[in-house]
Amino acid sequence: MTIEHFDVLIIGAGLSGIGAAYHLQTRCPGRSYLVVEGRDRIGGTWDLFRYPGVRSDSDMYTLGYSFRPRQQVKSIADGDDVQRKCPTWPRAWGTRAPRGP
To answer: 44-73: per-residue pLDDT in tens?
Structure first.
């Protein structure tokens, strides 16, 4: 059995885990990292809760990614908006896909 070693282990591929991977990749390019996700899809809470009308309870200008400013006019994001975009972010930034347990 081969054992892999990583400098950083990120637990969860929700918005925070994706953001952590981006920052590690850009600010610490010499560090290796692994994102592990227990579910089949990324997005964390945004992927898990898909009921009609779900939306952010905080403005996305404050809590969004500084490296990917929000372009939409509405400051409160609808769940559908985040759910559509979230899976594309790691590929767009060149971060590695998360692995399951």
So the answer is: 877 777 778 787 777 666 666 677 666 666
Residue 93 token pair: 């930034």
How far apart are the C-alpha atoms of 37 and 101, rounded to whole Å? 7
| pLDDT tens track for 6-44 | 999 999 888 888 888 888 988 999 999 988 888 887 778
> What is the C-alpha separation between 56 and 79, in angstroms, rounded?
7
CA distances (Å), 69 to each of 16, 36, 37, 55, 65, in order? 15, 26, 25, 18, 6
Region of 18 on the Ramachandran plot (φ > 0 left; ψ -120 to 50 alpha; else beta)? alpha
57 burial level (CB within 10 Å; 0-12, 13-18, 19+) = exposed
- Burial tier of 25 (Cβ tally within 10 Å: 0-12, 13-18, 19+): middle
Among 56, 47, 50, residue whose Cα is nearest residue 18: 47
